[in-house]
Amino acid sequence: MTFFDQWITWLPQLSPGLTVSLSLTGLCLVFGMPFGLVLALMIEGKIVPLRIVALLFVEIGRGAPALVLLYLLYFGFPEGGIVLSAFTTAVISLSWTTGAYSSELFRAGLAAVPRGQREAATTSGLTGWPGFRYIILPQALRISTPPLASLAVTIFQTTSLAFVIAVPELMSKAYELGSYTFEYLGVFVLTSILYGAITVAALALVRLGERRLSRHL
Amino acid sequence: MIVQILSGVGNTLLITALSLVFGAALGLPLVAARRSSWRPLQLVASAYIDVVRAIPPITWLFLIYFGLPQYALKLNPITASIVGFSLIAAAYMAETYRAGLLSIPAGQWEAATALGMGFFSTTQHVITPQAFRVTLPAIAAYAIALLKDSALASTIGVHDITYQAGLVARSSHQGLLAFTIAGLLYIALSLPLALAARRVDKALRIKLEVA
Amino acid sequence: MHMELAKTRAESPPTVGAVEVVGLDKAYGKNMVLRDVNLEMPEGEVLSIIGPSGAGKSTFLRCLNYLEVPTAGTITIGNTTVDAGARPSRASLDHLRRVTGMVFQSFNLFPHLTVLENISLPQIKVLKRSRDEAHEISRNLLSRVGLDAKSGEHPSRLSGGQQQRIAIARALALSPKVMLFDEPTSALDPELGLEVLAVMRDLADEGMTMIVVTHEMNFARDVSDRVMVMADGGVLEVGPSDQIMTQPSHERTRKFLRAVLDR
Lengths: 217, 211, 263
Hints:
heterotrimer, A: mainly alpha, MetI-like fold, C: alpha/beta, 10 helices
């Protein structure tokens, strides 16, 4: 069997793992990004206790390795009497990571809205929540979108960590395949190509989107 | 428990420090190639940088640790981790150097050339000191990222902080506590780096502004 | 013709007070940037504020709607009075901003909204107008500033002069009692500045009360009823525009005018 024949027989065995990796990524973005926005708003807000709580989430989420967070929840939940599947645990943990990193990007976006915009909103009577909701936030989100999209690609790569708590994602499937074919090298090269191809394609999309978004800024 | 987790600090630091040093060294020829005017060399360098960054670090580690022995290149976990992280760090460091070089306005090159300075003396006396200021905080940030990434070495059996915390968790049913300690330990280890970076950044900024 | 119109209005000034400022101070720490500024304006008057840069002209204007918080003094616009000494309530500030419209040097249109949305959004959110009503009013304002064809565009597609005219329309949409202009043409090429000045001239002719911080001496002389000269955070002199522009009583005003008119 040639290299490529092998790969073609392996692909169907890896593809369920890839599906799990992608759905894990999707869920982490769906939960993590709004969480990050909430964290950013709590940090920028004036209520001190909320700020402290949010800062703790962000500093631990960014300061500790994502792998440690994953283990922390994996061991921590059952010890606290909460029984969750490995997949759910991975979603929660990686959403925390996503939230912590994205909150910084949201904050940078908010800070990057020009001062004149706040002033124009104020003088147009758009103070408080309406001004924030209709003038500042949309512009901040637009500024944050390209780095958030890059973060999304990083999160896709980070889902590979879920392997350690036995979530059947791509890395896990690859390891499994390697351990009964003993073709570790070939299997992991193929796995790398899968990760790489999706990452490169996603980044190309990000760049394309970036150009469209910048049209009205 | 704390003692056992602390016993992993040595390996964590060893992998981080050596990978950073090797990565920093390997990054130099890489950035030179990336900026070379010979197109093929340039392409190879940017392909390397892109490929490394497009693949999760854990996949690299597995490729090296489990894959290479097929070709009789059996590395122990620590060596495999250092090789893996050095190769990854080289790509990131090359990009960091490049950002530093790009941050310098073309006018600096032109001014130095107009003053009759050659390529090497311009690089040494004009470009590098300025690029350094941009690069140093980025290197510190990457060092912190590398410290955290080094936790992945535990998955191929390196007895680092994360590995030790895992042992504690499995034997004592105190995983929450063990990994809280591990997490705080990583944060604590990255603090000096962050503070040093900030201090150096400030000092260099003042120096440059005065000059 | 415009000049004559302005003149007639100056000869028969209305009696209702539109703006009254008493003892306005503004300090950044120990640095006093405004010192005891007083101003009284009847409704329908057009006042130009001129003076060297750093005189505090823009700061004064921005204090009038509390973009800058004055350290002392009272501001009365229409029937709203705000006392800097008494920590004004949010409601009174909202009201102060409701009765003033502001036009910035850098336009500050909302880049993510179309021209029509820029003018309509404040009406919908602040005045609670229905979408249809707001759009109709916006379209009327757009035709007043000569830009009805641009309602669907985003600001980034328009010239600076067009953006500034839309910014004027946006401010007018809230039916302010007083319009504040902060160097509205300084960021524009001269020929684009002219189209903005033409809109402002029409507005003056319609009887809008206006305070204009400007470097356009022609506008100050021809359109405004009175001119206020500021220097070093204080008022040097205020008077009918003709008099200030031709026979100022202050030596510093003379020097300033000579310097800008020579340019």
